[in-house]
Specification:
Blueprint lengths: L3 E3 L14 H11 L4 H19 L3 E3 L1 H28 L9 H15 L5 H46 L1
Parallel strand pairs: 1-2
Helix pairs in contact: 1-2, 2-5, 3-4, 3-5
């Protein structure tokens, strides 16, 4: 297995093959759904991390796994509430009969769900990326365990060889 093993938060170092996948994923989460580019980075980063994990190109130890799962679950657990709150804005509020009031209500609808750069599509992109990253962590933990098992067997064989001499 090539690549890097990830540890606890703060010790995160993307593997060379990962390019910017891990960094993009994490930075996109911090910037949030108001930034369409950040939402796309979360989506792309999550998919890339899963691809790398499936290819055996990175692994994560148990401590890192727990920390990343906690972060993913925090986002996913709050997603339903977030999407519900933002969905309220996708219906024009009755703000009055003036042209200004109508334009403010229309603007709120556009911000919520007016195009691909609006909050709802960005939240969905982020949710999909977080799902992919969560799946990647499960695979990466398995990769780490397999690597550790292989190393343990190698050391056991070396030790046996030394004892036989």
């Amino acid at each position: 297995m090539s690549g890097a093993q990830f540890g606890a938060p703060g010790s995160f170092t993307p593997p060379p093959a990962a390019g910017d996948a891990g960094t993009n994923f994490l930075s996109g989460l911090l910037e949030g759904p108001a930034d369409s580019e950040a939402a796309q980075r979360v989506s792309d980063g999550g998919h890339h991390l899963k691809s790398l994990a499936e290819g055996g190109q990175f692994a994560v130890n148990e401590e890192g796994f727990q920390a990343y799962m906690k972060a993913c679950d925090f986002f996913l657990d709050g997603f339903g509430r977030m999407i519900g709150d933002v969905s309220l804005l996708s219906t024009a509020a009755n703000m009055g009969s003036s042209e200004y009031a109508k334009s403010v209500a229309a603007f709120n609808v556009k911000v919520a769900d007016g195009d691909e750069e609006s909050l709802i599509p960005n939240l969905i992109k982020m949710r999909d990326g977080v799902h992919q990253a969560r799946e990647a962590m499960v695979i990466a933990r398995k990769n780490y365990r397999e690597t550790e098992d292989a190393h343990s067997m190698t050391f056991a064989q070396l030790n046996k060889g030394l004892q036989e001499q």
